[in-house]
Amino acid sequence: MPKIFGAALLVLALAAAPAAAAATGPSARPGQTPGQTPGQTLDQASGETTGRYIVTLQDAPAAGSAEAAVDSAVVRAASMGATVLHVYRHALHGYAASMTASTAATLADEPGVRSVEPDRPVAIAAQSVPTGVDRAEADLSPTAAIDGNDTRVDADVAVIDTGIDAAHPDLNVYEAGGKNCWLPILPPVDRHGHGTHVAGTIGALDNGTGVVGVAPGVRLWPVQVLSPFGSGSTSNVICGIDHVTEHADEIDVVNMSLGGAGKDDGDCGRTGSDAMHRAICNSVAKGVTYAVAAGNDHADAAGFVPAAYDEVITVSALADFDGVPGGLGGSTCRADRDDTFADFSNYGRDVDLIAPGVCIRSTSANGGYSTLSGTSMAAPHVAGGAALYRATHPDASPAEVKEALVAAGGMDWTWPSEDGDGIKEPLLRLDSF
Question: Is residue 194 flagged as an active site residue?
Fold first, then answer.
């Protein structure tokens, strides 16, 4: 599937390294991105899915009035001929809808409307102790307690992705907590594999078979925002964030292996039109920690969101083939140098941690296992680490979780190698968690 980067296009960080990305997508109709809703077209210049918009409302002074305002706005949009697709009540107040450009312009001028922004397409960016778990020293964590016995870490992690294979015998999937924002009439079942791979790195069971995750047995909440072809829209992603925020008293950590062109607006979307930033900020304010992929473009992460957002933990990828420092491991699934900055990974001041992201073996859809590379694989190592910390520090804020992970990180990896900046980020290390 081709990646189309525009000023505001949102694209998931590739599950596999860029060289392997082309094999993941099907053919598209002329003028249509794979996975795009039939009948809609993609404006190649702007990266917008024409006819779909995200409407964000002004904050109401009280919860009850906010609910009433959302309901009233939805009714108003429907009366103008709009087809409402998602209603947001938790991470932000508003809705997503299909409508004409003239209707969108009219709504933008109505009292109580903060912003109306075009919807954007999104697309995916891919028992032994896996090398990443070994290198992050999760196998030495007293909370993870990895010893082949199925004792489970008491934490909840949401995976905003392609869904999770709930029937996989190596995963503890909390099906009742799931949500399908891509196609709400279906359960969030992973028919792509990306979300299940991410989930396994976070929390595959310590049960003596398959692989083991960083935080074995955590409750995994499947939040599907992408189609089986790995594509969707910004409105779907916000729907996922909204679901997480609704359950912020239960969910500790979120993994979002996604990113796209954009910058941190510096004020959590309070001005301008960045509904996703506003939603994430509101979710973080309610106590949920977000781990996100830095991206696979070998460029400064400051030009990609949500990686550029200060409120999340942004993760770059390390090439590690043997699970130990020293740079002596021979390359396996792809050509890279052991113990170095992955040659595809984004970099920069917005990156908080580096974690293993090359040739990572984990669970896959249909009960299997697979090996993938990408910052999509690095981020879930950090999400698992955050879950370990929250399991022993249940009242820790997202800022405190981030501070603890960064403070515990090590510097025992080869630098600068392929790193494109003058900053050596700490390597995830969890032996004290």
Answer: yes
From first to last of the 433 residues of the chain, give the pLDDT tens digit: 222 122 222 344 433 444 333 222 222 222 222 233 333 444 444 445 568 999 999 987 776 788 899 999 999 999 999 999 999 999 999 999 999 999 999 999 999 999 999 998 776 654 567 888 988 999 999 999 999 999 999 999 999 999 999 999 999 999 999 999 999 999 999 999 999 999 999 999 999 889 999 999 999 999 999 999 888 888 999 999 999 999 999 999 999 997 777 889 889 988 778 999 999 999 999 999 999 999 999 999 999 888 999 999 999 999 999 999 888 888 888 888 899 999 999 999 999 999 999 999 999 999 999 999 999 999 999 999 999 999 999 999 999 999 999 999 999 998 877 777 888 999 999 999 9
User: 86 catalytic, yes or no?
Assistant: no
For 374: left if phi > 0, alpha if psi spans -120 to 50, otherwise beta; the answer is left
**Catalytic choice (86, 93, 192, 194):** 194
Element (H, E) at 56: strand 52-57
Catalytic residue among 161, 206, 352, 419: 161
Whether 417 is catalytic is no
For residue 158, which of 135, 178, 176 has the smallest C-alpha distance? 178
Catalytic residue among 115, 316, 373, 376: 376
Q: How far apart are CA 151 and CA 149, in angstroms?
A: 6
